[in-house]
Amino acid sequence: MENVLEPRVILLLSGKRKCGKDFLADALLKRLGTEEAQIIRISEPIKRHWAESKGLNLSELLGDSAYKELYRKEMIEWSDARRQEDYGVFCRAACTTINRDICIVSDVRRKTDVRYFQETYGSERIRTVRIAASEAVRTERGWQFQSGIDDVQSECDLDNYESWDLVLTNENSNDVLELLAALERLIQ
C-alpha cells in the first residue's frame, strides 16, 4: 500500500518504560496539530494481532494500563519470533497509516526499527530521540522492574546506540515546555 504523503520528517522516540515517550509524543502532537503531524506506534499492529487472536480489548492493550502488562511478556516473545523472520514486519505495518508531513513514532525499541526507517525513508528525513528518566522517577510513574521484560531486547537493544540526534531527560514536569521546544527545533 502506497502512502498518501511521503513525510518530510519522521521523529523516532525511544526510551525505557515510563520515561514519558507517549506523554511527550501526545504533547508534541497537540502543539503541531493533527493537520501537520501524526503519531504512529510500531506496537499497534502487534497489539491488534494479539487482541484479535486472544479475544482481548485492543483499546486497553494500546493504553497505559495494568491490562497491557498482563500480556506484555507474551507479546514481546511472539513479536520477537516474527522479527526473526522479517525485522521490518511491524514497522512496515505501522507505516501504512502515514499521511502527514511529520510522523512521530512513539515506541522505537530496537536498532532494527531505526534501520527500517532509515532504509525506507532515507536518513535525511529521520530524527532520532532518546528520552531518559531515572529509575526513581520511572518508579514514581508506576514502573517496576520485571525480569523477562526490562532485561530483554525490547527494552535494552538501544541502550548502547550512540547516534541519537537528541537526548532529553524527562524527569520534571516543569521542563516539559523546554523539552517540546527542543523537539520542535529538531524537526524544523
TrEMBL record:
<dbReference type="GO" id="GO:0006695">
    <property type="term" value="P:cholesterol biosynthetic process"/>
</dbReference>
<dbReference type="GO" id="GO:0005829">
    <property type="term" value="C:cytosol"/>
</dbReference>
<keyword id="KW-0418">Kinase</keyword>
<protein>
    <recommendedName>
        <fullName>Phosphomevalonate kinase</fullName>
        <ecNumber>2.7.4.2</ecNumber>
    </recommendedName>
</protein>
<dbReference type="GO" id="GO:0019287">
    <property type="term" value="P:isopentenyl diphosphate biosynthetic process, mevalonate pathway"/>
</dbReference>
<feature type="binding site">
    <location>
        <begin position="16"/>
        <end position="22"/>
    </location>
    <ligand>
        <name>ATP</name>
    </ligand>
</feature>
<feature type="binding site">
    <location>
        <position position="141"/>
    </location>
    <ligand>
        <name>ATP</name>
    </ligand>
</feature>
<dbReference type="InterPro" id="IPR027417">
    <property type="entry name" value="P-loop_NTPase"/>
</dbReference>
<keyword id="KW-0067">ATP-binding</keyword>
<dbReference type="Pfam" id="PF04275">
    <property type="entry name" value="P-mevalo_kinase"/>
</dbReference>
<keyword id="KW-0756">Sterol biosynthesis</keyword>
<comment type="pathway">
    <text>Isoprenoid biosynthesis; isopentenyl diphosphate biosynthesis via mevalonate pathway; isopentenyl diphosphate from (R)-mevalonate: step 2/3.</text>
</comment>
<keyword id="KW-1207">Sterol metabolism</keyword>
<dbReference type="InterPro" id="IPR005919">
    <property type="entry name" value="Pmev_kin_anim"/>
</dbReference>
<feature type="binding site">
    <location>
        <position position="170"/>
    </location>
    <ligand>
        <name>substrate</name>
    </ligand>
</feature>
<keyword id="KW-0443">Lipid metabolism</keyword>
<dbReference type="GO" id="GO:0005524">
    <property type="term" value="F:ATP binding"/>
</dbReference>
<keyword id="KW-0753">Steroid metabolism</keyword>
<keyword id="KW-0963">Cytoplasm</keyword>
<dbReference type="GO" id="GO:0004631">
    <property type="term" value="F:phosphomevalonate kinase activity"/>
</dbReference>
<keyword id="KW-0152">Cholesterol biosynthesis</keyword>
<keyword id="KW-0444">Lipid biosynthesis</keyword>
<keyword id="KW-0808">Transferase</keyword>
<keyword id="KW-0153">Cholesterol metabolism</keyword>
<keyword id="KW-0752">Steroid biosynthesis</keyword>
<keyword id="KW-0547">Nucleotide-binding</keyword>
